[in-house]
Amino acid sequence: MLKDIFEGIAYLFEEILFIPFDFFRSLELDSWWAANALNFIFILIGMVALVYWMKQLKHYNEINDDDRDPTAHSFLG
């Protein structure tokens, strides 16, 4: 019975959930750029998030919202 459960999980992942990956693998033979388009989208999202994060850090640094005293935190003193 336990073997059937693990075989069912293997079937789910190998035959059903990997269908998009199989599509991209077959697409890579025709067009490398199209096959990696999803990766480029994720890289673009990460770059936008990094720029937003840096702008927020700069904003809070300019308004001195952070207490920078070394004794501000109990674990530092």
Low-confidence stretches: none
Biggest pleated sheet: none
Shape: elongated
Count of folded domains: 2
- What is the overall number of helices? 4
N→C terminal distance? 58 Å
Helix and strand sequence? HHHH
Radius of gyration: 24 Å
Number of strand segments = 0
Helix content: over 70%
- Strand percentage: under 5%
Keywords: Membrane, Transmembrane, Transmembrane helix
Transmembrane segments: 32-53
InterPro entries: DUF6341
Protein name: Uracil phosphoribosyltransferase
Structure description:
The protein has four helices and no strands. It is an all-alpha fold. It has two domains: 31 residues; 31 residues. The chain is elongated, with a radius of gyration of 24 Å. The model has no long low-confidence stretch (mean pLDDT 89).
What is the fold's blueprint, element by element?
Blueprint: H1 2-17, H2 19-27, H3 32-35, H4 37-62
Which terms would index this structure?
2 domains; 77 residues; elongated; mainly alpha; Uracil phosphoribosyltransferase
